[in-house]
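#struct-help
A.M.: can someone run this one for me? Single chain, 63 residues.
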Amino acid sequence: MILLLLGVLALVVGGCVCVVWAERGGPVWVRVVAKVTLVAGELVRSSARNRRRNANSRSSGDD
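D.P.: on it. Structure tokens below:
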């Protein structure tokens, strides 16, 4: 389990480095990795918003 978490952490840190490098005009592969990282972050953010929205609608008693 620890190795899995370390692998995920390495991917996140690597993605963040690529985002910064791409902003400074890095090579094409860095821009691709940066774009994938940003899209993945947006998906996680929208998923969290939807979960909060669903939890709020269930707890408010709206049927």
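A.M.: thanks! Residues 2-53 form one domain.
D.P.: also worth noting: The chain has a mean pLDDT of 89.
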